[in-house]
Amino acid sequence: MHTLLIEDNITLAQTVTRYLASQDISCTLRTDWVEWYSEAVQNNYDVIILDIELPNMNGIEVCRKLRAEWKSTPIIMLTSRATQDDIIAGLDYGADDYLVKPCDYRELTSRIRALARRNNNQKSTEIIEIGDLRINQENHEVTQSWDTIDLSKREYELLLYFMQNSPRILSKTELAEKIWWIYDAWADQKVVEVYIGYLRKKLWTHVIETHKWIGYSLSA
Prior knowledge:
By secondary structure, the chain is of the alpha/beta class. The chain folds into two domains: 2-122, Rossmann fold; 125-218, Arc Repressor Mutant, subunit A (Orthogonal Bundle). The protein is built from eight helices and eleven strands. Strand 7 (133-136) and strand 8 (141-144) form a beta hairpin. The termini are far apart.
């Protein structure tokens, strides 16, 4: 497994790198923003570990730029910024997980492996079809009745999760945890409902069904 660590604190970065190596996880360290951005875009890492407080560019902006280019490598924010606003911003702009410094490196290792497994499972089947709805995971193309549907990064991830789990009913809590990594019982309701609404406006009517008090399912 190969990770990319983007961190300007050299002492911390070297400590993380050494620990990951002891767990059989190789780690490329980059501190200069020109180098790390080139590394992140051009190479296929299993996981990217990203600080928020970087010189020249905020880590959240880095994450947003990578996702805008459809770079789907899982990203873990590893930062000292621990406010709820920071966490929400990081997840909304495309991070898959968020850890606050100082953290237990055993937990970091477990989360890296979990994200890598999830990413590999998602890539195992490149094309998924349900009825007239089709996702090509290689180029992120979504079509319905052969018409291309333009989705944002989060909309795409939400629809993909629905298709991978159809026809199972998915609760709001599960969707919030799997797509946004949000574990707040109150916060999860709003973001899921909003994005379900976005998808329904772009897909044909009644593709996503509501099951009152239970959750949602994707129908053919």
